[in-house]
Design a protein that fits this description.
Elements lengths: L3 E5 L2 E5 L4 H18 L9 E3 L7 H8 L2 E3 L3 E3 L2 E3 L10 H16 L1
Parallel strand pairs: 3-4
Antiparallel strand pairs: 1-2, 5-6
Helix pairs in contact: 1-2
Length: 107
Amino acid sequence: MIVSYLLFADDTIIFCETNKEQVSALSWVLAWFEAASGLRINLDKSVLILVGEVEDIEELAVELGCKIGMLPTVYLGLPLGAHHKAVSIWDGVEERMRKRLAQWKRQ
């Protein structure tokens, strides 16, 4: 099983193949992580986001026990999976920064 991942604070993004065997193995790894660490993974907040054409997405989500998401999405307030040159994608980020700058200027 080849898995790539990104960690940020208490978030983890895991990249793996989209077949039942890989997802089942990932599910076992997460269960063993919980058992070994005493930490609990909140699968209610977890999302399975697929890239490209994938069959049986519902079956994979059930195997992991999480919801199904789609790209583009927002992660940590930034657009994920959207075309980076699309100006409208960045409107929310720009507006939040304008508000923060205005607040800093007032202080």
